Amino acid sequence: MATERAFVFGSVAEDYVNARPRYPPRLFSLLSSLTPKHQLAWDVGTGNGQAALQISEYYERVIATDISEEQLQHAETRPNIKYALTPPVLTDDALNSIVGPGGSVDLVTVAAAVHWFDLDTFYAQVKRVLRKPGGVIAVWVYTTPSVSPAVDEVFGRFFERILPFFDPCGRWVFEEYKTLPFPFLSHPAAAGGESVIELEIEETRTLQEYLSFFRTWSAVVCDEGLLSDDFVRQFEAAWGQPPHHARTVKVPLFLKVNSPTLKT
User: Fold this and answer.
1) What whole-number distance in Å separates Cα of residue 89 and Cα of residue 103?
2) Three-state DSSP class for residue 130
């Protein structure tokens, strides 16, 4: 289900654990409120299991799958989470064996990863495994961080420099998933008729922690020189205080969540 470039994150699996923003608890309480039953959730592209951990607080069992063995090696375990290494494309037999039979899954989630997938194949499999009625699919992504006008100005120049080096599927990320193909009806209880729900992640980070986020971006993983010494110096100057001093970093998060009925 994943494109070839999705494999690059295995090389930064250890850094990924601490470098990526943490999803807000509000996200998972919202998702839990949308499914009548809470027996089984499938977290696809789980990476190091960040989303699976919070989902496991609401669902009896969580199947968390990923194509990267390196990422899964850094996943934190829970008694009710089963991690599974999968090929980029799951056969129907493998889907049945790893996830469960058709109509058995209450919630399917994809955290900051669905843009890498073969969407037609994935969505067909989601349609197969979701409980009917009552099953829900939720996909979300975060985009560019904000710190202060000075830091954000440097980031703007940095982002303009690296944008051409992202995989074409990255456009869905930077378009806030608003243009992401999603053949499901928006869940009225969650979205109020909107196709995308906007939430916010707020963290405190030192300059090094702020920059570590960018070092796990696919474009920078493939070409570390994109985050050049010159850009690092510009960020240091814009930080406006000692680099070890933590500042508030806000990251917008965009969520698409469906009702159980597929569009025809």
Assistant:
1) 20
2) strand
The 10s digit of each residue's pLDDT in 184-225 is 877 766 655 568 999 999 999 999 999 999 998 888 887 788
Tokens of 164: 């051409």
pTM here is 0.90
> What are phi and psi for residue 247, nearest 5 degrees?
-120, 160
In the predicted model, what is the mean pLDDT of residues 40-58? 97
C-alpha span between 247 and 66 (Å, rounded): 33
Which amino acid, one-letter code, is at 55?
I
Can the peptide bond before residue 79 be classed as cis, meaning omega within 30 degrees of 0? no
Question: Helix, strand or coil for residue 33?
Answer: helix
CA distance 14 to 72: 10
The burial class, CB within 10 Å (0-12 / 13-18 / 19+), for 225 is exposed
CB 207, CB 243: distance < 8 Å: yes
